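EI: anyone free to look at a 154-residue chain?
SC: sure, send it
EI:
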Amino acid sequence: MKWYSQSFSYDDPWATVALAYFLRYPNPYASHIISCDVVSRHITPEGSLRTSRLILKRGVLPKWAPQGIVSRAESWVIEESEVNPEGKIVKCITRNVDHVKVLQVIESVVLRETLGGQTLQCSEARVISRFGWGLAKRIENLGVTRFKSHLEKA
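SC: here you go
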């Protein structure tokens, strides 16, 4: 398993950053996203907004990948988020639901308002391959590299 984390502080207020986070797909810098659909959305008794979205991502397999390792270079991803407008916190967990033996990526993002009125974003990713054949570490390294690249672009 590989682990990656990154924090970033935005000068913008929490409401602006939270809105931008949920409007990030589609956009021309995230060409790997094919579609993004809301599956469910409801308000909790505490007043938070919970949303589940289904995202279809496209990828390119590296040349060193064994032929037939996956049936197609697309992956379904479920994103579960909670927006707490009172506490000014967004929590989001994203994970792929297919190809999990070859590569499973679980991403966690938290956006929170700081005392100075800025917004702090903390992102973490766990990248796991259970493929074997001596390729698991190579697949995990590729997963982290691509995650970093997509994080910078989007």
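EI: The helical segments are 14-22, 136-153.
SC: 👍
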